[in-house]
Design a protein that fits this description.
33% helix, 3 helices, alpha+beta
Length: 90
């Protein structure tokens, strides 16, 4: 699909209704515009809600996840063992 759009004096364009419908773009929803090999690519965006954590929460998780010395040594020993290789049978 190829269409010519007019850029307003405020730098805005209007996406034709058929394009919005085809790509599921509704009024007020975000889109992404990016430069790709000298062309502008416009695509629907997805907005994900994120949760921000305080430094105190992160520190508490770090404390909870900390290994005791014996467990740490077991992990290190397992990491030093060579990986097993599969034998091929024909």
């Amino acid at each position: 699909m190829r269409q010519t759009l007019i850029v307003s004096s405020r730098g805005q364009i209007t996406l034709p209704a058929e394009v919005r419908k085809q790509f599921g773009i509704k009024s007020g929803e975000p889109v992404i515009i990016e430069e790709r090999n000298g062309e502008l690519v416009l695509k629907p965006a997805t907005v994900l809600e994120i949760e921000m954590y305080t430094p105190e929460q992160v520190a508490a998780w770090d404390r909870e996840d900390r290994l005791d010395e014996a467990e740490r040594q077991r992990v290190l020993a397992r990491m030093k063992k060579p990986a097993r290789t599969r034998s091929t049978r024909g």
